[in-house]
Amino acid sequence: MSEHNINTINMYSSGGAQEYIGHNEIDPEIEKWERLFNYVENQIKRDKTKRIIEFGSGCGQLAFMLQSAGYDVVATDIVDDFLKEQNRIGINKVKKYNFLIDNYDDIFDFKADLIVSWRNPHLDMDDMKKLFDVVYNGLSDNGLFIINFQNSEVHPEAELLPNGTKYNYKILEDKQTNEKRFYAYFSKEDIDNLRKDLFEIEEYHNEGGKEQKNWHVLTLRKIN
After folding, report:
1. pLDDT of 141-195, one tens digit each?
2. Which domains can be identified in the chain, with CATH numbers?
3. DSSP E strand boundaries for 97-165
4. Is 207 helix (H, G, I), strand (E, B) or coil?
């Protein structure tokens, strides 16, 4: 696990998560989460027999919406304050899980039909490679992986790590936390290299920002 991810976890564990939760109570960004919920539903064709795991659920908005709609979903996180918030809002299945360290089979006794990893910009290239391997092994045959990445095309100011990650450190523009966080940026070519031999693209688009290009959004299907 990269030092950048460790720094982010430490930031959230030392008060950043509480700041984020407090901001979410004031401004829950309902439209954003409804858009993601609808996207997930469309990708799984509203099949409520699908078993879903969300990696890094944070405040739990997506997992709660899926659960409320009748889906079998497990919310996860590594930060205790986020796990407490997930329990507080009423998510039935909550697990403490670090997908970069913990063994999937030690935490889950099933293969998921869908795994979601949404807005985890603190993962550098090496972390992403690990994530893709974990998701591949955690999915059932032909299972789906929904993920988004910040787009390097709109961040020419980014620096470069030795492992090829474009990045910078900055404070969230909406001030959800007052501490700097690591942000990694990926090109479409980076994503194709990560998914090579593991996943085929089911759906791809860009969204976010004035030009609707801030994020790469993908639904990937496991190659058996």
Report:
1. 999 999 999 999 999 999 999 999 999 988 655 556 666 789 999 999 999 999 9
2. 3-222 (3.40.50.150)
3. 112-117, 139-151, 159-160
4. strand
